[in-house]
Write a structure and sequence with these properties.
One of its GO terms (biological process) is L-alanine catabolic process. By secondary structure, this protein is of the alpha/beta class. It folds into three domains: about 120 residues, Aspartate Aminotransferase, domain 1 (Alpha-Beta Complex), CATH 3.90.1150.10; about 55 residues, Helix Hairpins (Orthogonal Bundle); about 230 residues, Aspartate Aminotransferase, domain 2, CATH 3.40.640.10. About 45% of the residues lie in helices and about 10% in strands. The protein is built from 15 helices and eleven strands. The strands form three sheets. A seven-stranded mixed β-sheet has the order 2-8-7-6-5-3-4, sandwiched between helices. A two-stranded parallel ribbon has the order 1-11. The protein has a two-stranded antiparallel sheet with strand order 9-10. α7 links the parallel β3 and β4. The longest helix is centred in the C-terminal third of the chain and has 28 residues. The protein is globular. The two termini are about 20 Å apart. The structure holds pyridoxal-5'-phosphate.
């Protein structure tokens, strides 16, 4: 947090006193925010959103010359899915039914297993969905959530906010950040021995900040563990499109559990998806959904009640979430160009991940695992004894000391590993 505050201050200084620094811009590597680093939005998604925003241009002849036919057709379809075509009205608190239908169809196409639109809750990005689930799962400080460490801080913050206990499960750096069931079981038992009721296991796949893509066998073992221990499996799958290693494939936990023969009676599963990541990178549009499979009718009613406190999520985010799950199809005018944009962005992300990993591994005292997916690298940096002593003398964690100096010397914003709970 301190690094973010310092970087904002520096950003202002660069504008007011550019000569005071050796760099001309701040490079924000502390957050997966692709469009802030120059990534361009995807044409098809933006065309549909633009038309939806001002539907009266849908009928104008000039529009045909500017916008592709399938974007126009899709905007009409979406307009027809909105009750009364009222584009500025509140929607159903769970999200517009027609858009949830599109998402369910997209999930079904991808996985080959049925998806129910009534299981889908559209949200302003994945973050509110995560808070919603934490609010529902945590009753007191005696309720715990098993989380992978290093951990994306949304989860530690949300658990703290809702007064629960974070039960850590350390990922194994030496084996490419694998999630071992033996470690999960050990931490579960330790937590139970302290009187904590562990309610859920969180898995982030592909991982943030560690970038690993779980092997299907590992996922099966995790599903089995949750079933045996009666844990809700919270599957953060926001990086599902961000897989860079040939031969590695994203499998959703729902697909894995269904392929093992388990249905909703056997395992409670919540999958989070977002428009902020993937190849779309539309972080500011605030769109996403959670697919909640299982839970009795009364629990579902509670989820709905919590969702309805905020009335509804924003309509543009809802539309975008449905579009990313139903992009142009073969035969659509935008199909080829859309795929070219998508592949261009994903291959650029993969290339840059590798370039950066190789660069890290060439630096003295630095090692770094490859990023199989997501948008991050998590290097290990061995600092000289002297630097550690100086950091300690200023009561600063050595990694935070390193990041602060990196920022002031170069304008590059990194996050200290300790911010993710990593052991130093
Ligand atoms: C693993 C993970 N989950 C959730 C989120 C939150 O995304 P959103 O923008 O959809 O709230 C992020 C954002 O970086 C993330 O990395």
């Amino acid at each position: 947090m301190l690094i973010c505050i310092s970087s904002n201050k520096l950003q202002q200084e660069i504008q007011t006193k550019p000569e005071a620094h050796l760099f001309e811009e701040i490079l924000y590597c502390n957050i997966g925010n692709p469009q802030s680093l120059g990534q361009q939005p995807i044409t098809f998604f933006r065309e549909v959103l633009a038309l939806f925003d001002h539907p009266s241009i849908l009928d104008k002849s000039e529009t045909q010359g500017l916008i592709s036919a399938d974007s126009i057709e899709r905007a009409w379809q979406i307009l027809d899915q909105i009750p009364g075509r009222a584009t500025g009205a509140y929607s159903h608190s769970q999200g517009i039914k027609g858009l949830r239908d599109n998402i369910a169809a997209g999930i079904e196409d991808r996985e080959g297993f049925p998806a129910d639109p009534n299981d889908i809750f559209l949200t302003d990005g994945a973050s509110p969905a995560v808070h919603m689930m934490m609010q529902l799962l945590i009753r007191s400080e005696k309720d715990g959530i098993l989380c992978p460490i290093p951990l994306y801080p949304l989860y530690s913050a949300s658990i703290a906010l809702h007064g629960g206990a974070l039960v850590p499960c350390y990922l194994d750096e030496a084996t490419g950040w694998g999630l071992k069931v033996s470690e999960l079981r050990k931490q579960l038992e330790t937590a139970r021995s302290k009187g904590i009721t562990v309610r859920a296991l969180l898995v982030i796949n592909p991982g943030n900040p560690t970038g690993q893509v779980l092997a299907e066998e590992n996922q099966k073992a995790i599903v089995e563990f949750c079933k045996q221990e009666g844990l809700v499996l919270l599957a953060d799958e926001v990086y599902q499109e961000n897989v860079y290693v040939p031969g590695r494939k994203f499998h959703s936990f729902k697909k894995v559990s269904r392929s093992m023969g388990y249905d909703e009676k056997d395992i409670s599963l919540v999958s989070f998806q977002s428009v902020s990541k993937g190849y779309y990178g539309e972080c500011g549009k605030r769109g996403g959904y959670m697919e909640v499979t299982v839970f009795s009718a009364d629990v579902r009613e509670q989820i709905y009640k919590v969702a309805s406190v905020n009335l509804c999520s924003n309509i543009f985010g809802q539309i975008l979430a449905s579009l990313v799950m139903s992009p142009p199809r073969v035969g659509d005018e935008s199909y080829e160009s859309h795929n070219a944009e998508r592949d261009g962005i994903l291959s650029s992300l993969a290339r840059r991940a590798k370039t950066l990993k190789d660069a890290f591994n060439k630096l003295e005292g630095v090692t770094c695992n490859k990023a199989e997916g997501a948008m991050y690298l998590f290097p290990r940096i061995c600092q000289p004894e002297k630097a550690i002593k100086v950091a300690e003398a200023t009561k600063t964690a050595p990694d935070a000391f390193y990041c602060r100096h990196l920022l002031t010397a170069t304008g590059i914003v990194f996050v200290p590993g300790s911010g993710f709970g990593q052991v130093s």
